[in-house]
Specification:
With 351 residues, the protein is an alpha/beta fold. The chain has helices at 22-34, 74-84, 98-103, 106-126, 161-180, 202-211, 231-244, 261-272, 297-303, 311-324, 326-332, 336-348; strands at 5-6, 9-10, 13-17, 39-44, 64-68, 88-91, 131-137, 184-189, 192-193, 216-219, 225-227, 229-230, 250-253, 258-260, 279-282. A 7-stranded parallel β-sheet has the order 5-4-3-6-7-8-13, sandwiched between helices. A two-stranded antiparallel ribbon has the order 1-2. It has a two-stranded parallel sheet with strand order 9-12. Bound molecules: nicotinamide-adenine-dinucleotide and 2'deoxy-thymidine-5'-diphospho-alpha-D-glucose.
Length: 351
């Protein structure tokens, strides 16, 4: 059995928060595969975005434990750390959707800000050298014009309640390092795509609507640019940062893959053989960031990380995954989500 060591210590048990969500569930699958000597503890409150179906097949794995818990519950968080004694924390739990934060910011402040502080406190109370990897986002940098890229030194300028809550959590993580000497690392990744993404986000929403011949709501002129990264490339970057990142540092994660939204929507329609007449230009998102682009040089030069998937191959595979997993899409779109969905798009579709 090959064990991974950090600072001469065997790293064996990792606590993941938000492991039933999109990136978290992909990360659980990835780590069980890539680090067969590790134990994983997945703490997730199972909000509308958390789905245990994303993890089906691993429930009986002896190296995996699921704990249904809210990271804002101090007592429970302390008992989780007491019981499982993790060597490291990968913190992904969050409210993650910008449009929802515009409708109601309170769950974002509660989970992303308060929840992060409670988790930091529980980590510190449990162990002074437990590594804490904080999974943040490029949205904390705000927006770019037509040129340039985000560096780790770019000033934070969040424009939505979501990104402001993530920027706040980044500051709390920084403060934990500066004040208490906690072993923290923060990552800021660009837009992810791949299996198990909740179909409120651009790519799975457009695939589901196109499949059903429903309108595809493109915000504003559709010329906003996002820098897309396949989700397992995000996972491999998080593993590199967990094992080799420098304490107290920030690492940008991105694959140099910028696309205007409208082009992405057109690629989806083309693959599914659907007409462009399905596109509906709807009212723009308030405070909509025009362009994101990540400079990942620090991550690649210091930790040797490079992405392994290209958009040209991984986007068609992703589209096919959502077509093949129609029942998954329908199940997660049911219930509470549908209320939000109909309110949002009832108002926004301007046919
Ligand atoms: P997601 O919305 O798909 O999943 C979030 C998960 O967190 C869900 O399983 C949910 O149940 C859980 N959760 C929410 N509130 C909780 C609470 N109070 N206690 C415990 N669990 C809770 O999100 P995602 O897209 O997988 O994003 C994961 C992380 O990565 C987030 O921190 C997000 O800010 C960050 N991120 C996402 C992207 C992206 O493109 N999706 C890019 C960069 C960074
Ligand atoms: O950049 C990283 C961020 O990427 C993460 O921090 C967030 O958690 C994640 O949700 C994502 O944020 P975006 O706002 O960029 O993702 P979303 O899929 O919501 O939107 C992508 C782009 O598509 C954005 O410019 C808005 C546009 N859009 C989105 C939807 C849902 C549309 O034009 N129509 C839509 O219906």
């Amino acid at each position: 059995m090959q064990l991974t060591k950090r600072d001469g210590r065997v790293l064996m048990r990792v606590l993941i928060t938000g492991g039933a969500g999109f990136i978290g569930s992909n990360l659980v699958h990835y780590l069980l595969r890539e680090r067969p000597e590790w134990d994983l503890v997945n703490v997730d409150a199972l909000t509308y975005a958390g789905n245990l179906e994303n993890l089906s097949g691993i429930e009986s794995n002896p190296r995996y434990v699921f704990v249904k818990a809210d990271i804002t519950d101090t007592v429970t968080m302390n008992s989780v750390f007491e019981e499982h004694r993790p060597d490291a924390v990968l913190h992904l739990a969050a409210e993650s959707h910008v449009d929802r934060s515009i409708l109601d910011s309170s769950p974002f402040i509660r989970t992303n800000v308060l929840g992060t502080q409670i988790l930091l406190d529980a980590t510190r109370a449990h162990s002074t050298d437990c590594r804490f990897v904080h999974v943040s986002t490029d949205e904390v940098y705000g927006t770019l014009g037509a040129t340039g890229k985000f560096l780790e030194t770019t000033p934070l300028a969040p424009n939505s309640p979501y990104s402001a809550s993530k920027a706040s959590s980044d500051m709390l993580v920084r403060a934990a390092h500066e004040t208490f000497g906690m072993d923290v690392v923060t990552t800021r990744c660009s837009n992810n795509y791949g299996p198990y993404q909740f179909p409120e986000k651009l790519i799975p929403l457009m695939i589901a609507n196109a499949r059903d011949d429903k309108p595809l709501p493109v915000y504003g002129d559709g010329q906003q640019v996002r820098d897309w990264l396949y989700v397992t490339d995000h996972c491999s970057a998080l593993l590199a940062v967990l094992e080799h990142g420098k304490s107290g540092e920030v690492y940008n994660i991105g694959g140099n893959n910028e696309w205007p939204n409208l082009e992405v929507v057109r690629l989806i329609l083309e693959q599914l053989g659907k007409p462009e007449s399905l596109i509906r230009y709807v009212q723009d998102r308030p405070g909509h960031d025009r362009r994101y682009a990540i400079d990942p040089t620090k991550l690649s030069s210091e930790l040797g990380w490079t992405p392994s998937r290209t958009f040209e191959r991984a986007l068609p595979e992703t589209i096919q995954w959502y077509i093949d997993n129609e029942t998954w899409v329908e199940r997660v779109r049911s219930g509470q989500y549908m209320d939000y969905f109909s309110d949002q798009y009832g108002e926004r579709l301007s046919e």
